[in-house]
Amino acid sequence: MDALLSFWNSLPDFVHSTLFILALTIVLIVSVALLTLWERKLIGWMQVRRGPNRVAIFGLLPGIGQPFADVIKLLIKEVVIPAKANKVLFRIAPAIALIPAFATWAVIPIAPGFAIAQVDAGLLYVLSLTSVGVYGVILAGWASNSKYAFLGAMRSAAQIVAYEIAMGFALVGVLMVSGSLNLGTIVEQQRGALFAWNWFWLFPLFVVYFISGVAETNRAPFDVAEGESEIVAGFHVEYSGIAFALFFLAEYANMILVAALTSVFFLGGWLSPLEGYLAADNALFQVPLLGLFLNSGLHWLLAKTFFFLCVFLWLRATFPRYRYDQIMRLGWKVLIPVTIVWIAVEGLMVYFKIGPWSV
Amino acid sequence: MLVQFLFYAFSAVLIASAFGVITSRNPVHSALCLVLSFFTSAALWLLIEAEFLAIVLVLVYVGAVMVLFLFVVMMLDINVEEVRKGVTRYAWLGWLTVVAVLCEILGVVMVRRLGVDVTQAPKPLAADYSNTGELGQVLYTKYVYPFELAAVLLLVAIVAAIVLTMRKRKGLKVQDIAAQVATRAEDRVRIIKMKAETRE
Predict the structure, then answer these.
(1) CB atoms B74 and A142 under 8 Å
(2) What is the CATH number that goes with domain B1-87?
């Protein structure tokens, strides 16, 4: 064990980060696979159905093999490129959609004191990368040379520009509390009890951020870019096989990303909710496994992320799709004013030293 | 060494994509080349440790401005031949601009002597240096009035854009969401109780 550890420490930095990146990517891809299954199962239960229950692995757990069967099916299918499509852009569009969804994970504080890159301007990095993701959708829609795909791309462009602003303003509120752009510091600053986390004092911003996150990922009820009942499959209507699978992967990776970001910004990331209630030298923390569980750590971030993912699925199972003009109205006339008002309220809270600014 | 290599690599991509902006026939390709040149200039700024400016360049120009730009360019089905017809008529204006811009660039390079022999590469800053913090300090103290002026200018531009596009048309159907939500069943449905009619 010691030999392994010393070998690990002797490796140069770039090997460390490469291995971390590799591990994170594999974990993400596997979680996307399991998330698709969980989505179908959970929505099935919500709608009093069973969900996928055929493909079993070794005859156990019916349904668990479904995502893997889907992936194999998509890998084997032919990638059809329309004759009049812009070939180059058509091919690179899925990659452009996918790269930001994975690259953003570099700055997310995964465990206490650990992130792949502890960037000082981490929050700006997150904002800029999430806004780049839309290029995949726009290029796919345009390069396909198809009316439906193009309509989907146009809708997505307008929608993402609108919700980006609300998202950025909501994060301005987080910045006012933390005074830092570093995501690790943002989590550290939320230390304390359940009510020291940002969601309590920034509740409107928390709601606005999550709604904009749902809109940015083009998920129901904001999925007009796909809108299968109106424009077939929207921007990826011409994509088949693994090219379609990449868009699918990007969408679900973005969902996990938004869920993780919401928990980092507003629910204290890897912080344990029991922190303020149990003293740091409490005997419970000394109990072998239970102590590890109660203490802050990666598992809390996973639990919070999982919670938000379930909310994503819950929204999809319950809400009908927004009409396009209603999406614009919600973004510009409701969410943005709410964030601006709350930033002003926060200014007053800073002045009168209320809440997180009281110390 | 690595930094120098990266500088030249990014500069090469930047110059190539800038050429792409003006040479490609397809306006969408031009816009995409512009996106690439924004990205590479952001990378160049990162190399001189101006991470705030670099990331904001990507956030504002690539993430918002160019998305709208592409939006418009894709919608317009520009007939390139049609556009090229008038080019020769205004060619003298184009050349004038080229000469003027060239003179300005040369003026800056000659007068201030932005050469490697005169201007050294910036010294690496300490690890706890925050570009964002430093910029904020300067913006809100030394340059607070120009900063506020720029903000007001942008606000005026927003208001102007809205005023220019807002017009009241007659017979325009507008949805009042609050009124719709406030509606109750009694407002819409009238239940009439009556005796069943019998055939004579």
Answers:
(1) yes
(2) 1.20.120.1200
